[in-house]
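debug: dumping io for the single-chain case to check the tokenizer round-trip. Nothing else runs in this session.
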Amino acid sequence: MKPTIVIVGRPNVGKSTLFNRLTKTRDALVADLPGLTRDRHYGHGVIGGKPYLVVDTGGFEPVAKDGILHEMARQTLLAIDEADAIVFLVDARQGLTAQDKVIADTLRKAARPLWLAVNKAEGMRREVVTAEFFELGLGDPVAISSSHGEGVHDLMELVLEAFPEEKTDEAEVNHPKIAIVGRPNVGKSTLVNSLLGEERMIAFDAPGTTRDSIYVDFERDGKQFTLIDTAGVRKRGKVFESIEKFSVIKTLQAIEDANVVVLVVDAQLDISEQDAHIAGFILEAGRALVVAVNKWDGLDNYSRERIKAELLRKLNFLSFAKMHHISALNGTGMAPLLKSIDMAYQAAMAKLPTPRLTRILHDAVTAHQPPKSGPFRPTPRYAHQGGQNPPVIIVHGTGVMHIADSYKRYLENAFRQAFKLQGTPLRVQFKQGGNPFADRKPKPPTLSEENARRRAKRTSKKRYGG
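debug: decoded output
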């Protein structure tokens, strides 16, 4: 599972700027105004060489007793409790403050791996700007600039050094993990109970009953599975309780840890933007997907047709995923759902032989060549598999870095249809072929070549003068 790195510090030290730098997004609002961030932001870290989740917290004021500052402090303390490592951010321009010392004492008690980063250090001598922060007793401070990116990569290399590379055990390959996700109160825990055939999860007609991600092993038809029941994911603006806010991170971690994700939507409610948002995160994580439209039995024919049209319109980017209409409460539709889960898992873990991949690539290019990029036409030459869960196909050739997105989707569809990859995202990556003669130095001319060059030069002078 990916480690969780939490950014902590007093207000306006640049936590959100660092978050945006680490995730290469603009998800966190940034302004020269203390207290702008109140809720936690979470994202995928892409700087540092290893995958991880990064959490941006609000300005931390542990001594606050009430009001919004107290709620923000509670949020940060919850994040600290679940962190695998903490980056404590301080301000090089303002120097060491009394509040920094209070935060340092709080973080020291948390007994988590802790790194001290001195932000806004651009244009300043590193040894000078970090000197006063040794007083905190948190090891060697690392000088960085979140806005300019200076020192950020080195900091994350240090933070992630203790965490092992993610590896997939052979036992896990034959033992799929299935995460059940969706909005609150769509019937996720009821679906888990129906698949297990027992009341294993608390199912209650109120949103937010499940707070954490629960792992349950079970066997069906001689096959071993692990079900992961997750908390409901709300819109950020509708999340009030601090415990429920942190459950979103648990759900995202469960998606990362799963091989197949079952997205549960409520047929008796309109398909919302939040359903599409959750589906987008699953797609971004590259997980195989099955859509379960729950509470189908309570709809009339008109409502069913309306929901089908709405699903096609709002979730049209999930055309690779199987969609099932079920009733988790009555247990209808469970066998086809499990069959699709197994098919999606097999597709996600499929091994794609290089000769066949290359043949499919050549057939696709012959049928429809890539459009020109400038005066030249990209030339894909061969393909091989670069990963599983999701399957990754790497296409080599000349000028392939200029292939348009529309042609990339064309190749994805060609590979998907040829290998029947139903239920899993498929990623096609391009690798530019280098010039084999780029590093070759020209050979010196032979004696005969040099004599021929001189004769040609003399003849030219006689004929044209000069």
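debug: round-trip ok. The longest strand covers residues 379-387.
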